[in-house]
Amino acid sequence: PPQKDGVFKVMLVGESGVGKSTLAGTFGGLQGESAHELEDTEDTYERRIVVDKEEVTLVVYDIWEQGDAGGCLRDHCLQTGDAFLIVFSVTDRRSFSKVPETLLRLRAGRPHHDLPVILVGNKSDLARSREVTLEGRHLAGTLSCKHIETSAALHHNTQELFEGAVRQIRLRRGRG
Length: 176
Ligand code: GDP
Ligand code: MG
Description:
Helix content: 25-40%
Radius of gyration: 15 Å
Distance between the termini: 22 Å
Strand order of the largest sheet: 2-3-4-1-5-6-7
Shape: globular
Bound molecules: guanosine-5'-diphosphate, magnesium ion
Number of helices: 6
């Protein structure tokens, strides 16, 4: 079995409807030599993948919405994650406006950690209903986190997203 420090846990967080479960599904759907299916439940996906020629077990958790805003499940998420993907929809300005508050909460829960956080602007395929443009990257810069735009529907940048999370965790662990 893999070493404990070879297991990276990634939490999908963000408002309802932004595409967290669809993103998780794209990870769960990874096939081929680079991904072995391990134990899955409805809302966690565990895969062994190769990133930068090194194997890692990545567990993606889609459990954020099971907790209410102040609930202990969210605290559990905060304590468990090795990296956090704060997802908003580029077609939903309200979901974007919640990002700073969510990030503050994550950082408050783990005050002595330099948490890997990636700001994910999802639904980039919906060009005509886009409500958030350059502000995504700008906000990420202001908040000192990474930024990527994805389309879970078209699988655009989704593999890059999960690989990026692995790289961010490795960097923090001094193995990057
Ligand atoms: P969650 O509430 O954050 O888990 O969001 P879901 O994954 O359930 O997605 C909400 C809706 O948005 C569903 O109808 C998805 O099919 C749709 N959706 C999710 N990601 C994308 C995307 O990248 N592009 C488009 N066009 N639709 C998406
Ligand atoms: Mg969901």
